[in-house]
Amino acid sequence: MLEGLKRVSVDSASAGDIVVISGISDVRIGDTLSDIAHPQSLPMIEIAEPTLSMHMLVNTSPFAGLSGKYVTSRNLRERLEKELETNVGLKVEDTDSTDTFKISGQGELHLSILLEKMRREGYEMAVSKAQVIEKMIDGELCEPYEEVILSVPEVYQSVVLKDMNARYGEMVDVSEREGYVTSVYVVATRALLGYRQSFINQTKGEGIFIRKYKGYQPKLNVAFERTAGVMISNDNGVAMTYALFNLQDRGTLFIGAQTKIYEGMIIGITAKDMDMVVNPTKNKKLTSIRSTGADEAMRLTTPKALTLEFALEFIDDDELVEITPDAIRLRKKYLKEHERKSAYKMTRNTVEQD
After folding, report:
1. Is residue 103 exposed (0-12), middle (13-18) or buried (19+ Cβ within 10 Å)?
2. pLDDT tens by residue, 289-317
3. pLDDT of 35-76, one tens digit each?
4. Whole-angstrom Cα distance, residue 79 to residue 81?
């Protein structure tokens, strides 16, 4: 048994004690250890089923293996199997590809904590967009819903209310105290994907956002899609100030000058609802003619910092988050432009046939 920082040997322990048991290698959370002569099992602990899933892939970008120590599918499998021993809410499944695993958990935070732990331990991987886990209940297709508690300054209440209405949230309670408005909503988990960053921006960081699993309800016949396009690099190399200066007026950049990039990497968000293929490695042509005055200084705006939480919320179905110990990058699943066009045509043909 643990007493402070020391371990002491005891013959018995009671509820609330933290003990370490040796000699049983395959014991799992929820199992009952009893006397062989009087075997009596306790009821199994009920663990909430996963509501969100994503695919974890071996990192296949041109920068794979530059910073991580564990990069193979065997490394990922061993780490996920080890995580299953203590992470009772996690579910790991094999897929048709030996380099891809399907991981399911209880929300974005649950999965992002696992990914951050693996990243800090030296693992490299790529993950796809999170998808909610749907179920057929009494012959009707259902999806997970959550109870959301939002506490915001009164001045931001109208903006938050408008956004929750756009996500088809149902308000069940509202109260006001000391200049703060606290609202309780029931919202589909699918509608909340990507909302955390939006909420932080809307409330200038002054709001409180709490979410809790509510249960399964009939699926909303509504599609929640990203409204912004992305800038996609069409070349390998180093981003140049001249190219980024001309691109920053078209949207928000994720990278700064002298950042190493590769073809198919996402370097920013466009101001319009369309993807744009760009060349961030383009530099100013040198000539023998010089102006009488100095050239105008090219000042770049500070790039948007890419966090793991934002990246997981932002990506679309045809994109991946590349996670390494020293960087978070966004990329397209297909790095070559002609491969993306072929994949889009195949997807469109499949939809038309259905």
Report:
1. buried
2. 555 444 456 788 899 989 898 899 899 98
3. 788 888 888 777 778 999 999 999 999 999 999 999 999 999
4. 5
In angstroms, the CA 225 to CA 212 distance is 23
Q: Are 54 and 92 in contact (CB under 8 A)?
A: no
Closest CA to 197 of 119, 293, 311: 311
Identity of the residue numbered 304: K
Helix axes of 157-166 and 195-202: crossing angle, nearest 10 degrees: 160
Tokens coding 268: 């920013």
Give the pLDDT mean for 195-219: 89
**How far is 106 from 91, CA to CA, in rounded Å?**
10
- In the chain, what are the helix, strand and coil shares in percent, each to the nearest 5? 25, 30, 45
pTM over 0.85: no
Task: Quote the Cα angle for 230-233-236, to 5°.
Answer: 160
Arithmetic mean of pLDDT, 172-188: 92
Query: Which of the four pLDDT bands, split at 50, 70 and 90, describes residue 254?
Result: very high
Within 48-98, strands assigned E span 52-57, 91-94
Q: Is 240:248 a contact under the CB 8 Å cutoff?
A: no
Q: Which of helix, strand or coil describes residue 327? A: strand
Q: Are strands 180-188 and 170-177 parallel, antiparallel or unpaired?
A: antiparallel
Q: How many whole angstroms separate alpha carbon 339 and alpha carbon 332? A: 10
Distance CA 4, CA 7 (A): 8
Distance set, CA 244 to CA 171, 232, 252, 298, 332 (Å):
44, 13, 10, 9, 20
